[in-house]
Design a protein that fits this description.
alpha/beta, four-stranded mixed β-sheet, 7 helices, 4 strands, signal, Chalcone isomerase domain-containing protein
Amino acid sequence: MKLRFVCLLSLLLPLAPLTSHAQEAGLAERRAMAAYAKDIWPAAEKSIQDAAGFPVVIELNLNSLALAGYADSYTDADYLKNTVIEPVIRSFQAITIDEMGKTALKEKLKSLTILYDEKTAPASNYVDGLTFEDGKLTINWKPFSNAGDIEPRTKALTTLLESKL
């Protein structure tokens, strides 16, 4: 009887819900994200705006980017810098390499929103996490995920922008 129980239990365990990163951020996460916004984000925001060539309005959706259980990692380059910020900078630099690109970006890009929605963010098909409508560019990529994919993210964003500018 004991063996049957163990076998049945081993069949049911994979059906148990896994812990999700989408749970509401706790105090540690809120504190860590507030520190990120104060200490790290201003320089990152300036780098993005410098690459754009103008002070584009940027909304960093802190609540959605604060993954539960990762508060100690928010300042790690692989958390946001390599997954979102660096691809944006590189893409804007590619777009603004000449006057035509600078003018097009400045005329068409009104704002940039950076967020993470677990239900709609792609695992690796990064173009699926991008929208550019009515001058609003939205980037929905998971922080701290596939941090080495700077080039594929940059390419996805650059391709989208080039098609819309």
